[in-house]
Amino acid sequence: MMPAARESLLDAAYTALARRPWSAVRMVDVAAAAGVSRQTLYNEFGSKEGLARALVRREADGYLAGVERALALPADARERLTATAEWTASVARENALVKAMLTGCWSERLPAPTLSAVPSSSAVPAQRRADGPLPSPGDFVAAVRDRAVAALSAPGTPRADTAELARTCELIVRLALSCVAAPPGEGGVAELVRVTLHRQPL
Question: Could you please report the per-residue DSSP string of 118-150?
Answer without folding.
Answer: -----S-HHHHHHHSPPPPHHHHHHHHHHHHHH
